[in-house]
C-alpha cells in the first residue's frame, strides 16, 4: 500500500509540475500551500516532525516553494533523506544518543535551526529577484546566482551534517576522533569525526546537487538550461556538504560540552557530578551549532561559487 501511494503521489506531482503555469503567482501560492501542508503532515504522521515542527515546516516550505521550485526540490530531498537516515538503525541509536526520539521528532526550534537560513534566502530571493526558476550564471544573473548558491550551501551543510551524524554513529567500524586533537573519543561526542561520517557528509551534499540539476531540467526551458554550465553544482554541493560538516564538528568541539555519564553510560551535553569531561564548553547546544554552521556556509558558498564557476556571456 505504501509503494502504491508513493507511485500515485509521484505521478500526480509530475503531472502538476509539468503542466501548471508556475509564472502565475496565484498558481505558485496554491501549490506552495498544498505541498507544504502535505509534506508537513506526512512528516508528523511518520513522527519525523513534532506538532510544532510540522507547523514551522509549513512556513519554511511555503516560502521556499513560492520563491523558487529548485529550492523546494532540494528542501524536499533534504527532508526525505535525513528523515530516512534518522530512523535507520534506531535501536542502536537509542543506546547512544542522549535525547533520542523515535523517528526523530524534530520540533519547531530544530526545524528553524535547519531551515531558518533557507527561509531568509527565499525572502531575499523574492525581494531582490522575484519568484521564478533561474540557472546559476554569475555573468548574466549575479544576484540570483549568489542566492541560489547560498541556498545550495546551507542545505548541503544541513544534509551533509545529518548524514554524517546518523550514518557515522552506527556504521563506523572504529571509534571517532576529536577533530581538534585527533584523540579517540566515545561515540556521540560533539566534534567527533569518522571516515564513514566524512564520506557520508560529502555524498549528502552531492545528492542535493543532483536534485538541483533535476529541478532545472524540469522547470527551466531547454533554451536557458545548459548542462555544461550547471553540472558544476555537483562539485559545489559535494564540497559544501563535506566542509559544512567539518565546520559543524569544529564548532561542536569548541563550543559544545561533551562528558561521559557514568550512570547513563552515554555522552551527555551538560556537566554534572556523574560526568567525566571529554571536550568543549557549554556555550551552544546542538541546534544553535546547526544554525551557526548553516549561516557560515550560506555566506561562504556563494564566494566559492563565484570564483570557481565558469564565466559565460
Automatic annotation (TrEMBL):
The record gives the membrane topology as: Multi-pass membrane protein
Q: Where in the cell is it found?
A: Membrane
- InterPro entries in the cross-refs: DUF92_TMEM19
Q: Which UniProt keywords apply?
A: Membrane, Transmembrane, Transmembrane helix
Q: Name one GO cellular component term.
A: membrane
Q: Where do transmembrane segments lie in this chain?
A: 55-86, 192-216, 236-257, 289-307
Q: Which family does it belong to?
A: Belongs to the TMEM19 family.
What is the name of the protein in this document?
Transmembrane protein 19
Q: Which organism is it from?
A: Clytia hemisphaerica
- Organism classification, top ranks? Eukaryota, Metazoa, Cnidaria, Hydrozoa, Hydroidolina
